[in-house]
Design a protein that fits this description.
Length: 349
């Protein structure tokens, strides 16, 4: 933008001759500042008082909202539900806390913005920049002092001191890394193993009864858990997140993968229910294609071909559990999964 773009009457009456016109030292001319335009609040005290009352009202509403937040936290039961049109049924406590906290923060911000735009000074002040580089004499002295200090330290000549100092500085950060151990117990191998083991019965998640081959019809999808795992156990959620199983019965001729056929029983195959993308539970089965779909990100697996990934972001196939039948005719596991279930982790394999 040049000075020609601004009407002459808007330019300051006096300008610094050094920057008013472009030259080799100052390639860009200073356009100057237009005259200050007063706001209505600057010239009308009644308008200023209206703005003052508006700001005060916003701050007062913020205070009331904060009191409402505290009162809601104390008075509203955490399990109470309300209907809010058009959203639907909501937790009353969460709705009240969110509404009051949002109102308190919004009114503080709106009040501060209105105060600044209408009542605080809006006069533009220009200040010339000054060089930030040191004078040549100062720079020369600093470099000379640095070289003199390096020479007197004998860092280049005392190699033993130099090398041990570097070693100390390099090793010291490891103490901070060691402190990360206190973030929690090491996982060990628990990510690689589940509750499944040789002889564990496959228990129906719905009926809580052991499964027989006759309980699984062709084309059906059944969910199972390991024998002995009950919902009232304190670690049920952690264990079922690794051991959840889905069982499908296929026609043996439809199974394309040899290992899958060998690990099945009369066409009954058992795969991990945990998606290998981000660990969502798989629950959608398409009988004609033998595909299962993860509802979270649409990863699709082919249960007739080793549960390989045929679509979506999942990185690898679902782990299969080798199963058989015990002497009493119940389906049982013949071991644990051969690989970790769920999403991959850095030491998987």
């Amino acid at each position: 933008m040049s000075s020609q773009d601004i009407p002459e009457e808007n330019l300051p009456a006096e300008q610094d001759a050094r920057v008013a016109v472009a030259d080799e030292k100052h390639p860009f001319a200073d356009p100057g500042l237009p005259p200050h335009e007063h706001r209505i609040q600057d010239i009308d005290e009644r308008a200023a008082r209206r703005s003052e009352r508006t700001v005060a009202l916003l701050f007062t509403v913020s205070m009331l909202a904060t009191v409402g937040f505290i009162a809601s936290y104390v008075a509203i039961p955490h399990d109470k539900a309300i209907f809010v049109f058009p959203i639907g049924h909501l937790n009353a406590l969460n709705f009240a806390l969110g509404l009051t906290l949002g109102a308190a923060l919004f009114c503080i911000g709106a009040g501060a913005v209105h105060w600044a735009r209408t009542l605080m000074s809006d006069v533009e002040v220009a200040d010339d920049r000054h060089p930030i580089a040191a004078e040549p004499e100062v720079k020369a002295k600093v470099m000379a002092d640095f070289k003199q200090g390096a020479k007197e330290s004998a860092l280049g000549r005392r190699k033993l001191i130099r090398n041990t100092m570097f070693g100390a500085l390099a090793l010291f950060p490891l103490s901070g890394v060691v402190l990360l151990r206190d973030l929690g117990p090491l996982p060990g191998t628990k990510l690689r193993h589940t509750l499944w083991s040789k002889g564990k019965l496959l228990v129906n998640m719905n009926t809580n009864e052991p499964l027989r081959p006759s309980d699984v019809a062709v084309g059906s999808l059944t969910f199972a858990k390991p024998e002995g795992l009950e919902e009232h156990d304190h670690d049920f959620q952690n264990e079922i997140a690794k051991a959840a199983l889905m069982i499908v019965r296929l026609q043996p001729d439809d199974i394309k993968d040899k290992q899958e056929l060998d690990w099945s029983y009369q066409g009954i195959v058992a795969y991990s229910k945990i998606c290998t993308h981000v660990g969502c539970p798989i629950s959608l089965y398409e009988q004609q294609t033998h595909h299962v779909l993860c509802p979270c990100h649409q990863s699709t697996f082919d249960l007739s071909d080793g549960a390989r990934v045929i679509f979506g972001p999942a990185g690898h196939a679902l782990p299969q559990l080798r199963i058989g039948v015990n002497d009493e005719g119940y389906l049982e596991a013949l071991g644990d999964f051969e690989e970790p279930v769920g999403p991959a982790f850095w030491e998987r394999g």
